[in-house]
């Protein structure tokens, strides 16, 4: 069973043109052997592990509680995606803050969790919910059997989003003001446009600011000592454009009852290039070389700064061209920076 499912998932991943289509098809395939009643599959910033672009199907009664759901997810240490090393279930559901304070009341009896992480970073996490019964060891083994290939596929899909940006971006930065329990109380005029493009809503519905809730929840988690990662996430918008979303308390003393400000703006060249390098699987040395190139250095200057010979720099460049699907320094920088 494991091998057949893993092979089908591998084929889906190899053919998928984007991360959302990939996740939808994989969930349908997994559901054939690991039944579940609801799910949340989010992509993450590879460095901060903060979530973005969630693909979710949860009970309708839980939708009004979305801010609480995300906040509790980030504050829960049980099977937190930042510490998972393999698929896991709620062996003792009462140990989960999220289950005790929210999921139990909606009939959820177990959650199977897994994380998609490799040496280049964390690319996403998946929670499968079951309302009635628990996940079994063999079912968790199925999830483990597909995790490695899916991690590479998710990273590849992210790499494919780095193209030359088309036309002017949305006006920004924009700001949302949230209460301590993550309810949006105020926002700048262009915020709706950004949120609608970050997470396209169903027809006639307002966009759900899940990415905003995620960075705010990470801020709360960092303040509580649950996880030290910074409350920021870089997210693909559209047309090769990437945004950075950050959260901070408005009160300089960091009072827990102070409002939370969330900002959304286009990634800086350095922020964008860092994700690009990870998504394309560049080595630390190749990433360092890319940083020099984006600063305008030529081969001779790069060689001197990195204590390499010009021939070694050229060898690194050939490897980088192969990994990024480019054939020239200009094409490489266009993809990394999003400029023509």
UniProtKB/TrEMBL annotation:
UniProt keyword list: DNA-binding, Transcription, Transcription regulation
Organism superkingdom: Bacteria
One Pfam family this sequence matches: GerE
Residue intervals of the HTH luxR-type domain: 275-340
InterPro entries, alphabetized: Sig_transdc_resp-reg_C-effctor, Tscrpt_reg_LuxR_C, WH-like_DNA-bd_sf
GO BP: regulation of DNA-templated transcription
SUPFAM superfamilies given in the database record: C-terminal effector domain of the bipartite response regulators (SSF46894)
GO molecular function terms listed in the Swiss-Prot or TrEMBL record: DNA binding
Protein name: Helix-turn-helix transcriptional regulator
Species annotation: Dactylosporangium siamense
Source lineage: Bacteria, Bacillati, Actinomycetota, Actinomycetes, Micromonosporales
